[in-house]
Prior knowledge:
The protein has 149 residues and is an alpha+beta fold. It has one domain: Cytidine Deaminase, domain 2 (3-Layer(aba) Sandwich). 28% of the residues lie in helices and 27% in strands. The chain is globular. The chain starts with a helix and ends with a helix.
Amino acid sequence: MRVDQFLVDAAVRQLxxxxxxxxxxxxxxxxxxxxxxxxxxxxxxINAVMNLCAETGPICEAFGRGERVVASVCVARxxxxxxxxxxxxxxxxxxxxxLWGPDVEVGVAHPYDVRDWSSRRLxxxxxxxxAVAYGDAIGWPxxxxxxxx
Length: 149
């Protein structure tokens, strides 16, 4: 399952629900393998070290349910901007999503037009993933490799 307009719209709705007055913010939406959607928002804090990415909550919820994440998108509203942009997952969220393998699809902005976006496999976003050295076999580590089983 790819990042599509329905998933982006779900993230934007979450963004608008949390910040209806159009303040800057971050929201995310994930597809689970069964097609259901989980959403979340970034947790801002005066101590920036304590901030959490928008994907963190839905990723933890999916893992807690024993569900597989197949696609993820994060959207941001910038200061003074009524629209939104799609953000590629940060390094930490790439690590979190890596739990479900290299075929997880993620939203990424076009490098020359941030209003344009596409869906890419996690392996395309992170082609030199460091943890392949720790898998049971050559290639991307399995879920069991990631969680130490």
